[in-house]
Design goal:
By secondary structure, the chain is mainly α. The protein has two domains: about 50 residues, Arc Repressor Mutant, subunit A, CATH 1.10.10; about 130 residues, Tetracycline Repressor, domain 2. The chain is built from ten helices and no strands. Helix 4 packs across helix 5, helix 4 packs across helix 6 and helix 7 runs antiparallel to helix 9. The N and C termini lie far apart (about 60 Å).
């Protein structure tokens, strides 16, 4: 698979990593395990992913992309910004938790993956803009968003709030909804 005739791709490595995570879990999946599944050396995998953390980030991004496709359809049902920010966020968090691989990466990965969940990537930002952009544009057209908050900035803030809530496994859905109502909504919506 990794010969010169058929060079190994990032997608193949990510797929092999997902396979290993599903079989062994995040904590017990190593770059060596991924290389074995692919029939290549560890160094070959490292040419595409410098670190295990960067590989886990790529896996998370693939899983987030799949979740985003489902969420775009769900978000069309929200009529107002407050409902979207609270219920849409709760649904988004639930979709992320329902993906066993993504959930395990978020809960058990190392600090650099935690940072990725906050930092995201340009691709994750675009995916979230696809989900939240229409809701934000509608609220802006209704005069409901606070002045000078563009979609990019709003989505960055929403993504950070979601990352924090994802890490707080001790919060119930009701507690999360309360925090979203009390803090996220007023941070973006006009009183």
């Amino acid at each position: 698979m990794g010969s010169n005739k058929n060079p190994l791709t990032r997608e193949q490595v990510v797929e092999a990593a997902i396979n290993c995570i599903e079989r062994f879990g995040v904590a017990k999946t190593s770059v060596i395990d991924v290389a074995r599944v692919l029939g290549v050396t560890r160094q070959t995998v490292h040419r595409l992913f410098e670190t295990r953390a960067s590989l886990l980030e790529a896996v998370a991004e693939v899983r987030i992309e799949a979740a985003a496709e489902n969420l775009q359809r769900l978000f069309t049902r929200f009529d107002d910004i407050e409902t979207a920010l609270v219920e849409g966020s709760i649904v988004s968090l639930a979709v992320g938790r329902s993906d066993a691989v993504l959930d395990e990466i978020q809960q058990q990965a190392d600090h650099s993956v935690d940072q990725y969940m906050f930092r995201g990537s340009p691709k994750v930002q675009q995916l979230m803009l696809g989900i939240w952009g229409p809701v934000l544009d509608h609220a802006r057209a209704q005069g409901r968003l606070r002045d000078n908050i563009g979609n990019e900035r709003a989505v960055e803030w929403i993504r950070n709030v979601h990352a924090m809530l994802t890490m707080r496994v001790d919060y119930s859905e009701a507690e999360k909804a309360g925090l979203l109502r009390d803090f996220l909504v007023p941070s973006l919506v006009r009183p």
